[in-house]
Amino acid sequence: MYTLQTIETFAQEIRKSRFQAVSGPVTSEAAARNFIDAHSEPSAGHNCWAWRLGAVYRFNDDREPSGTAGKPILQAIDGQSLDNVAVVVSRWFGGILLGSGGLIRAYGGTAAACLRAAPKSLIVPRVHAQVRAGFADLALVKTRLLSVPYLSIEEEVFTAEGAELTLALPEREITNVRQLVGDVTSGRSILLVSI
Hints:
By secondary structure, the chain is α+β, with helices and mostly antiparallel strands. It has two domains: about 1-120, Impact, N-terminal domain (Ribosomal Protein S5, domain 2, 2-Layer Sandwich), CATH 3.30.230; about 125-195, Alpha-Beta Plaits, CATH 3.30.70. About 30% of the residues lie in helices and about 35% in strands. The protein has helices at about 30-40, 70-80, 100-115, 135-145, 175-185, and strands at about 1-5, 10-15, 15-25, 45-55, 55-60, 85-90, 120, 125-135, 150-160, 160-170, 190-195. Strand 4 and strand 5 form a beta hairpin. Helix 2 runs parallel beside helix 3 and helix 4 packs antiparallel against helix 5 (about 175-185). The radius of gyration is 23 Å and the shape is rod-shaped. The mean pLDDT is about 95.
């Protein structure tokens, strides 16, 4: 899964109607609602939207025929394997009716083009863990830990014997990091995963 790094916009005209999409990253339902409120155009006839946060999603057709706007926008999000994303597509009617199929293509296509243009980053599920290391092992432990992709040392608290490191590490690396810590310290340190 991926998410967007920044807010992106895209506009196009389809049979004299103007469509403008704004997409961006969101971290909660409240943030998604705020994004929609902030990027809906008051002068547009319709401000249709969709967002996804993991298994939770919402979409709205904003008075367009049912299923012709919000759902195609959500399908554009899902079609690009995106998460933690909101999209608003505003439409200014140009006088030519597009029909249900035309609306589905217009809203979904505008959202998809906007999402394709946006810079993305990989979502890596991470967990928190602690490692206690003595001063003799500390430098080597930190060096080896930081060689693990997507692992970060979030906090380092020094004690009389060494330091306690708080880590954020990818879930899929728990077993490897546990083995690494044990090997580097000859079993003197262990990885404790927070629940």
